[in-house]
Amino acid sequence: MMFTLLTVILAFAALAVAGTALSNSEDAQAQAGAGAGTVVTLTEFKIDPAMVDVAAGGSLTVKNAGTVVHNLTIEGTDLKTADIDPGGSETLDVSSLKAGDYTIICAIPGHKGAGMQAMLMIGIGGSGSQAAGSDTETAAQNNAADAVMKKPTDAFVAQLTDGPNTKGVGAQLLAPTVQADGTKQFDLTAKITDWEVEPGKTVKAWTYNGTVPGPTIKVQSGDKVRIVLDNQLPQSTTIHFHGILVPNAMDGVPDVTQPPVRPGKKFTYEFVAQGPAVGMYHSHDYAERQVVDGLLGAFIIGDEPLPAGVAVSQEVPMVLNDAGVIGLSLNGKSFPATAPTIAKQDEWVEVHYMNEGLQIHPMHLHGLPQLVIAKDGFPLPQPYQADTVAVAPGERYTVLVHATTPGVWAWHCHILTHAERETGMFGMVTAFIVK
Ligand SMILES: [Cu+2]
Q: Could you write out the DSSP letters of every residue in 28-70?
């Protein structure tokens, strides 16, 4: 497996090197054309080059390489050089010209008719008029910026060989303590925990059992479920089972269905699981801070019906967040700390997008269509394909991804400021890797 991944990575590296070589040679060409001004040469009876390309704000260096006097005149404007003696040259400032095409001629009688006519194209900006050296500077700045942008991507890729680049993994399946009567009991301790969102960025997260997201709870339809909440936070809290059918008294809304669970106190939630369901559990007290700061997790009952002939090799809850101390993240991590999903060719992967944030996130997967099979855990009678699935706060979408085409496929929120900043990719970015 590592060999395959390494091959893919090396292929990327080779591409990057090839790209650099290409851009270097382009830089060299651009550099050769730069100077105090674009050079135009006058001879009998020709203007060279026949098409003169100048960026807006530029100037021309007009050289008379002929044996008689010539000048350069831009038709339809007041711009022209003085008459230039053989061997002489003049600079013609054309910065007053708007972008567009102009005809340039030698206005010495008879010379235009003899062939001294060419086209002048003023572009919409660029490097043509810049002083020598600025192209090199621009390229150097760009190369430096590219190197900065590359760092998080390298750190993400390094996880494939070196393991996670941050401490702590959320959304891990929590095994129940099964009671004598068959009740599946899950103990959740709400507490403040240091949480490394991205390499070097550790925050005071509000967690269930010390991770963001909290542990994933999965039960079967008909299971008797007991959740024991132990509030070790400095503030009251409750748990609401979002998208899960429970008796009203178990709905977790403070002062409506129960008193708030005060610091140091416990509360027990009990209900019979009704599925299939793709839900979330989260705080419903001071929720606008407690949830986005980390009091969130996946709660799944049973399995969504699958299309005929499809078997799923892995089930991936992907909790989206964008606020609080956690910020823009997938399963409590910001790129490059996000975990890639790795599948063998031809496997099917089931993904549950769950938006616990405050904004909508259009989740875009490159290369592999997403088959949407359920909305908020309700099976769709007519599954549909999409490459971008917009997930609003509170929504869950269940999609199947068929790992058909090998490669490292970028997978990210398509609100671009949720995925990239001046220092490169961050936030809601990960990859789907097909081996
Ligand atoms: Cu987003």
A: HHHHHH-SSSEEEEEETTEEESSEEEE-TT-EEEEEE-SSS-B
Distance in Å, CA 235 to ligand 1 centroid: 29
359 CA to centre of ligand 1 in angstroms: 7
Nearest to 238 by CA among 262, 274, 222: 262
Overall average pLDDT of the 273-284 stretch: 98
Its pTM stands at: 0.71
163-184 burial, b at 16+ Cβ within 10 Å, e below that, comes to eebbebebbeebebeeeeeeeb
Range of weakest confidence among 94-103, 122-131, 210-219, 378-387: 122-131
Can you tell me the distance from the alpha carbon of 32 to that of 38, in angstroms, rounded to the nearest whole number?
11
The 3-state DSSP class for residue 386 equals strand
Q: What is the pLDDT of residues 314-337, one digit of tens each?
A: 999 999 999 999 999 999 999 999
Question: How many secondary structure helices (H) and strands (E) does the chain include?
Answer: 3, 30
Question: Distance between CA 351 and CA 401 in Å, rounded?
Answer: 8
Question: 206, 190 in Cβ contact below 8 A?
Answer: yes
Answer whether 193's CB lies under 8 Å from 210's CB: yes
Ligand 1 centroid from CA 205, angstroms: 20
Q: Give Cα separations from 278 to 66, 263, 315, 399, 411 (angstroms).
A: 82, 29, 12, 12, 21
Return the residue matching tokens 């801070």: 289
What does the alpha-carbon distance between residue 304 and residue 398 come to, in Å, rounded to a whole number? 8
Torsion of CA 205, 209, 212, 216, to 10 degrees: -160
Whether the predicted pLDDT of 377 surpasses 60: yes
> How many CA atoms does the CB half-sphere of 124 hold within 13 Å?
0
Q: Which two tokens stand for residue 337?
A: 């700390």
Question: 413 C-alpha vs ligand 1 centroid, how far in Å?
Answer: 5
Ion ligand 1 residues within 5 Å by Cβ: 361, 413, 415, 418
Distance CA 302, CA 280 (A): 14
Report the chain's C-alpha Rg in angstroms. Answer: 32
Phi first, then psi, for residue 44 (nearest 5°) are -90, 120
Which residues share a beta bridge with 269? 227
Give φ, ψ of 149 to 5 degrees: -60, -30
pLDDT, position 36: 60
Distance 299 CA to ligand 1 centre (A): 22
